[in-house]
Amino acid sequence: MEKLISASLIGLSQGAIFALMALALVLVFRSTRVVNFAQAGQAMVSTYIGWEVVTRTENYWIALPAAALAGALLAAIIETFLMRPLAKRASHGAIAPVASIIASLGVLGVLHSGAAMIWTTEQKLFESPVSVNGIEIGSTVYPFSQADMLIISTVVIVMLTFAFFFQRTSLGLSLRAAAFQPEISRLAGVRVDRVRTIGWALSGAAGAVVGVLVTPGNYLSPFSLDILLVYGFVAAVIGGLESPQGAALGGLILGMSLSFTSIYVSSGLTFIVPFIVLLLILLVKPKGIFGGGSSRNA
Amino acid sequence: MSLVVRNLSVDHGAIRAINNLSFIVEKRRLTAVIGANGAGKSTLLRTLSGLIPATEGKATWGEHNLLKGKAEQHVRNGVSHVSEGKSVIPELTVEENLDLGALWRRNKKEADATKKYVLELFPRLGERLKQRGDTLSGGERQMLAIGRALMSKPQLLLLDEPSLGLAPLVVEQIFQTIRDIANSSDLTVLLVEQNAMGALKIADIGVVLNLGNIVAIGPSADLIADPAIRAAYLGY
Question: For chain A, what are the domain ranges?
């Protein structure tokens, strides 16, 4: 019973992180068809900004929005000055689908080395605003901390805010429309280029929140968030790569399967589990759980 | 205000899709452009709405140069384009598709009034506001596409093959609606059609396009009466 509770709680906390990372990737992919490998780097740089703020102000609650803002700005800059011109110039031929992927890898490299130059590769301690120790109930200590609760509640709030924004606001409608059918959206008067930049900015902010949530209690280095790229992508693909709900569900599935395997089987399996889960789900649903996509061409 | 197209040429790579086209559409007239597949009809509309660039020539709507600026700007200048194949976003609801056409409009009261007008014009859409676009029948989708364009309160409406893939009875209905819209509002309509007879019947003016060139232009009643046009385009 203890094991079951522990596994579920850790799964929930990890799943929330994967889900938000997946959402960041999905937001970019659905609006601009870019598989953005730079996402991990963007999140890392934003987290350093958060770290700078937290070391100066000693206030995590200022650092979180500051990092989100920095993440949004950085993403908007990458989209405006690199991805958009690239998409216009490399729109034909064999290079078209891969140009943006290669470019995003390049950006990741630039962000890695830029961060190493500014902050060095030495690991920085990011203080947590709440306890990172396991919660004690009775005589048992559960491997679930206040920090985990902070993660889960923040991710839930961010996800609900996104859902409200997309479903209930005019700008949200423009974003969805431009993602599904850019040409028809243009003809309806949607400024598609601007809306795409906003999509990137939201994604950058989401990635930054991931970094600032997951780093406290851990060390921050230019490469410390790279592993989340893998988990984020797996979660995003499980969910169909285009669906925000799919990203949330994919993250949860991945988080749960990781924590259950490491608690019930062996923690040595954690590197294989994401790919086994991915393969199993894609065998049953080749387009991912929420990846319908059939009406796209209609 | 009128639509003036002068010496317009458009190339698709090495192929000339439209060759030195000149014509004028007077305000409040319904003009039908007919011709076979590949005659350059869709290219003409896509050029006028700012989706593809022209190679040379001029096209103006009133004081607005239609060959400059993006499609999203043209909408703000009163030019709405319903592109080929029921231009509806299937993933969005009927209401969202309609709202999309008016998102850019500052005056929300006026936009609401337009929505009321559109729903009176297409009561079937009013009954299906919360349904997704892809649950509609072909005819309903075409109505939604036209309704979305009307939501932008256009002065010039560009319609690309509204009859495509629809049952004959529905085609007749759509054509009648287009005629009604043109009669009841201040709208100038440029209608592109392969269904030559249906389009000429409701149009004031007809333009016959072949391989990017105008082969005939005139009052549509005259075109219908012309034996050569009848034989080549109307099938009898």
Answer: 2-297
| Structural domain includes residue B121 | yes
pLDDT digits (tens, 9 = 90+) for B32-67: 999 888 888 999 999 999 999 999 999 999 999 999
Candidates A31, A184, A185, A193, partner chain B, best to mutate (most B CBs within 10 A): A184
CB contact under 8 A, A177 and B89: yes
What's the total number of domains in chain B? 1
User: Do B90 and A180 count as a contact with CB atoms less than 8 A apart?
Assistant: yes
Q: Is residue B56 part of a domain?
A: no
Taking an 8 Å cut-off on Cβ atoms, the answer to whether B92 and A187 are in contact is: no
A294 touching chain B per CB within 8 A? no
- Tell me: the pLDDT tens digits for B114-145? 999 999 999 999 999 999 999 999 999 999 99
What is the SS3 assignment for chain B? CEEEEEEEEEEECCEEEEEEEEEEEECCCEEEEECCCCCCHHHHHHHHCCCCCCCEEEEEECCEECCCCCHHHHHHCCEEEECCCCCCCCCCEHHHHHHHCCCCCCCHHHHHHHHHHHHHHCHHHHCCCCCEHHHCCHHHHHHHHHHHHHHCCCCEEEEECCCCCCCHHHHHHHHHHHHHHHHHCCCEEEEEECCHHHHHHHCCEEEEEECCEEEEEEEHHHHHHCHHHHHHHHCC
Q: Assign domain A2-297 to a CATH class.
A: mainly alpha
Q: What is the pLDDT of residues B158-212, one digit of tens each?
A: 999 999 989 999 999 999 999 999 998 889 999 999 999 999 999 999 999 998 8
Task: Assess if residue B175 is contained within a domain.
Answer: no
Within a domain: B183: no
